[in-house]
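Archive transcription. Copying these from loose printouts into the bound notebook so they stop getting lost. Printout 1 of 2:
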Amino acid sequence: MKKTAFRVIATALCVILCSQAFESYADPSIDEIKDERDETQENLDEVTATLEELAAEQNEVIDEIEQVNEALVTVMTEVEVIRQAVVDKEAEIAQATERYEEAVATANEQYEAMKIRIQYMYEAGEPDYLTMLMQAGSFSEVLTKADYVQDLYDYDRNMLAEYQRTIEQVEELRIALEAEQEELLALQADYEEEQAYMESVILELQALSDDYAAQIADAEALAASYAQKIEEQNAEIARLEEEARRAAEEAARRAAEEAARRAAQDSVAASADSGRITTTNSVTYDVSSIYAANGGDLGKSIAVFACQFIGNPYVPGGTSLTNGADCSGFVFSVYKEFGYTVPRTSYSLRSAGTEVSYENAQPGDIICYPGHVAIYIGNGLIVHASSVRTGIKISNAQYRGILTVRRLI
């Protein structure tokens, strides 16, 4: 299992490094990133499964450690009990030894006293002993004194025998206690050996658990890197999908605008004969007065083209003729359809092209107002993106004070 886990982790690291190297030299598509993400997810699932296996095996080792620890506690308790028993036994042996020595000393004292008395009465004191008998007043007194001597002798012998038995009993007890102590020491050695073995087993199991912990830490780090990579891949996919969505919307918008412009241009071409146009809102508008005004054909075409978008919305900052534009964005986009690039702001348009007087204004000229611009369509009228409320419409050219009239064609 350990080798398998290491292989999984090592392989996964190689995959990450290779994928990172690939990303450094390639610009993958959404489908390629999705494939990479799916592969990363598979690797993450594999590492997750490995983590579960490692955790399960580590838990088994931890359970074994707990079991051995419980047994070790029992053994250590037994060792302490035996050690205390050995100490107690040593105290008993010491007491028995002391009693033995005291009994021997007492017996020796009794024996020495008896020897002195015997020596005094039977050896050195025999005349005195006879004198004591002869001096007796009666036979019964003689017998009494003789009995006294015998009793004293018997007493000494009995006491000596008693002391000897005490010595023997104490010696036997001491020998028994020493034998019990030997057994306890042997048992203590066995338990201490078992304790040492269990401690070594715990160390081995702990080392194995630590090894599992290290593998788990590596696997968790790897899983985290996979999760981070998946998050980055999902973010990149979302970004590319958003770009694709915006690109599709932009393409659709441009296609719609292009279709509207073509329709408007076709309508402009047709209006030259009919004198009428149809706006992008399907409203018919009479433009014959534009064609009848003074000025060049290109300027008139620009004016008629601009009228195609009457009724469309005003959007601040916008440049779309169909979806919405502001005043300068409207002028900018109309001229752009005819291949002209004009300034984007109303302020800059005041100095664009050549200035002409309002009296000489022609269809297609730009009328500049304070903070506003419009396209002149002749007969004192303008078409312009007026406001958010009114949108693109036709107004009287002098509905407000004119700053300048600019001719770009």
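Printout 2 of 2:
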Amino acid sequence: MSDAVELANPDEVVLAQEYLNLKGRVSEGRERADRLRRLAEHLDEQASKDEHALNELEGALGMAAQLQIEQLDKELGGKRLQEIAVEVLSREVKPGQAVHYRDWYALLRAAGYRARGKDPLASFLAQINRADRIEPVGARSGRYRLRVA
């Protein structure tokens, strides 16, 4: 009987059906997870935009005034820049020790401050040249030191 069809083992048929069911669930689960990830990303972006708008409204209403003052306080200019720059330098170097103004400005930045202006480094340099407790080292070397009292 060469025309006879062999019947599959009933256990193999059950396993094959279970395989196909599981494969379908895995595929559906992956698709659902991808949709949820995209939705979560969209919601996160929207929450960030809403949070920014909320901060703007708090500032307009004066509810976040303290935060804004602290942020502005870190941007220095004029006499205040001189005072803070000299204070930072006196903490970091010994009197009489020379430091290049770029390194000094890096110390100021590391302390969390910055000079106000279009070119902060130029603003910084202009102000430290006016500071009474500072003296240049050499002619046009870019190096400065605290005056020894």
